[in-house]
């Protein structure tokens, strides 16, 4: 980091560029894609190195070796490179997954905003509704119906006013 004559750093905030990338899902995906390309390139080169090391280590024989001893001596070298390659494959999968999850996060935020706006509109409509009183039916008050259906007595104590079948 270079400094100017007054001792102030050239960049005020070294993380400002990464902060801007983190805020934009498209830039985030491009940034992780760059890392993914580098990791995939390393992975390809290490796979070639793994094959060449396997051929060399398994082919290196010492006088007096029994059958398979060179093969067994090469296992630690092969295992270490296999572990590195496995980790690199996990890294590439993680980078891709992270880019997708970042995009999904923005879509989720948009959906939450939309659903909250819709809920607020529904609540506003609900609050602004004028309550209409149910029209009174004058036939049920004090007048005895010939067919007491739903308007009939509601308890067994009111059965004396009901007509029998």
Key attributes of the depicted protein:
elongated, single chain, mainly alpha, 0% strand, 165 residues
Please, could you describe this protein's structure?
62% of the residues lie in helices and 0% in strands. The protein has three helices and no strands. It has helices at residues 16-23, 25-59, 69-128. Helix 1 packs across helix 2.
Layout of secondary structure:
Blueprint: H1 16-23, H2 25-59, H3 69-128
Helix pairs in contact: 1-2, 2-3
What's this entry about, in short?
With 165 residues, this protein is mainly α. It is built from three helices and no strands.
Between the first and last Cα atoms, what is the distance in angstroms?
101 Å
Considering DSSP H and I runs of 4 or more, what fraction of the residues is helical? 55-70%
Percentage beta strand: under 5%
The number of helical elements comes to: 3
Low-confidence regions: none
Which structural class best describes the helix and strand composition? mainly alpha
């Amino acid at each position: 980091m270079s400094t100017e004559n007054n001792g102030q750093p050239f960049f005020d905030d070294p993380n400002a560029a990464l902060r801007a990338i983190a805020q934009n899902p498209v830039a985030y995906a491009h940034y992780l894609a760059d890392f993914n390309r580098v990791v995939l390139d390393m992975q390809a080169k290490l796979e070639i190195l793994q094959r060449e090391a396997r051929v060399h280590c398994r082919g290196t024989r010492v006088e007096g070796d029994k059958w398979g001893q060179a093969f067994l001596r090469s296992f630690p070298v092969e295992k270490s490179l296999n572990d590195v390659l496995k980790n690199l494959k996990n890294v590439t999968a993680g980078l891709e997954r992270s880019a997708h999850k970042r995009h999904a996060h923005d879509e989720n935020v948009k959906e939450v905003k939309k659903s909250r706006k819709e809920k607020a509109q529904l609540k506003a409509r609900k609050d602004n509704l004028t309550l209409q009183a149910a029209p009174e039916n004058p036939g049920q008050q004090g007048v005895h119906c010939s067919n007491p259906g739903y308007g009939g007595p509601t308890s067994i104590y009111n059965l004396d006013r009901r007509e029998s079948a």
